[in-house]
């Protein structure tokens, strides 16, 4: 059973002083889970902000993701050690394969084995995958066992609900982490979401995040504004009714925001 906090701080697209400020503000406001990735180019800044915060490492949950260039057996562990150096820590709590990248010349068996090796070396407490469809998740399970896949981090929002993939993951006992839960902000203007927000004296962002939390997913929203970081946290105490959830369920439109050529596999 994975042990992944329900609420974290995402750092996608945030760089330099912007990410330092976001992480610093987040930690001051009470965030204790931070999600980064090698390709974000901000691990060193995240590490700097954590070091300056005075928050003890044992109180934090850090996730990073291995980039496709580092999937080979020779490169994966050294690349993770490099990430640890940037993050100023001896181990991360969770390391994910960022994209399946089916045609990049490294087999799934090779990179999942290398990831398991990183865990056995004590570089990461848990391992998992990101952006994997059902078939590729099955292949990953065959290599490392489902008990060793802590999560599949996937794009999910009220506009992209991924019921087939989520159903499979939950049936296998693999935790779901939702990214892009606000669909790049698109759901914030949705009339249905706005009406629920009004009824609940909440913000549209809180409603979308509370929807994901109610379904059992972890969420990792990012923001550069301290007030939004604070406001997003309140989604954890927002209670949506069955009727609210049904209204949001009806918003499904397969509205995918992220599917890079060559990195994504066929979506379910």
Automatic annotation (TrEMBL):
Gene3D superfamilies linked: NADP-dependent oxidoreductase domain
Highest taxon in the source lineage: Bacteria
InterPro entries: AKR, Aldo/ket_reductase_CS, NAD(P)_OxRdtase_dom_sf, NADP_OxRdtase_dom
Domain NADP-dependent oxidoreductase residue range list: 8-251
Catalytic residue positions: 40
Gene Ontology process terms (BP): methylglyoxal catabolic process
Binding positions for substrate per the UniProt entry: 98
CDD domains hit by this protein: AKR_AKR3F2 (cd19139)
Keywords: NADP, Oxidoreductase
PROSITE patterns xref list: ALDOKETO_REDUCTASE_2
Site (Lowers pKa of active site Tyr): 65
EC number(s) given by UniProt: 1.1.1.346
Keyword Secreted (UniProt): no
GO molecular function per UniProt: methylglyoxal reductase (NADPH) (acetol producing) activity
NCBIfam families xref list: PRK11172.1
Record-stated family: Belongs to the aldo/keto reductase family.
Protein's name in the database: 2,5-diketo-D-gluconic acid reductase B
Species per Swiss-Prot/TrEMBL record: Paraburkholderia caffeinitolerans
Gene from which the chain derives: dkgB
């Amino acid at each position: 059973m994975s042990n992944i906090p329900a609420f974290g701080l995402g750092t996608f697209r945030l760089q330099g002083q912007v990410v330092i400020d976001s992480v610093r503000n987040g930690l001051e406001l009470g965030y204790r889970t931070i999600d980064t990735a090698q390709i974000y180019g901000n691990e060193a800044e995240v590490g700097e902000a954590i070091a300056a915060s005075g928050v003890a490492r044992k109180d934090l949950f850090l996730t990073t993701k291995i980039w496709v260039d580092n999937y080979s057996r020779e490169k994966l562990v050294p690349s993770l050690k490099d990430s640890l150096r940037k993050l100023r820590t001896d181990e991360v709590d969770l390391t994910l394969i960022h994209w399946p990248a089916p045609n990049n010349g490294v087999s799934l068996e090779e990179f999942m084995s290398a990831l398991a090796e990183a865990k056995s070396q004590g570089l990461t407490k848990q391992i998992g995958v990101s952006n994997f469809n059902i078939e590729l998740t099955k292949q990953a399970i065959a290599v490392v066992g489902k008990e060793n896949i802590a999560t599949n981090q996937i794009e999910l929002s009220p506009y992209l609900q991924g019921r087939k993939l989520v159903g499979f993951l939950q049936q296998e006992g693999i935790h779901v982490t939702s990214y892009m839960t606000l669909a790049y902000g698109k759901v914030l203007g949705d009339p249905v979401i706005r009406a629920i927000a009004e009824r609940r004296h909440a913000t549209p962002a809180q409603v979308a995040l509370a929807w994901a939390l109610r379904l059992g997913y972890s969420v990792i929203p990012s923001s550069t504004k301290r007030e939004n970081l604070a406001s997003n946290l309140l989604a954890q105490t927002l209670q949506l009714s069955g009727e609210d959830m049904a209204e949001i369920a009806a918003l499904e439109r397969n509205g995918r925001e992220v599917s890079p050529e060559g990195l994504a596999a066929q979506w379910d």
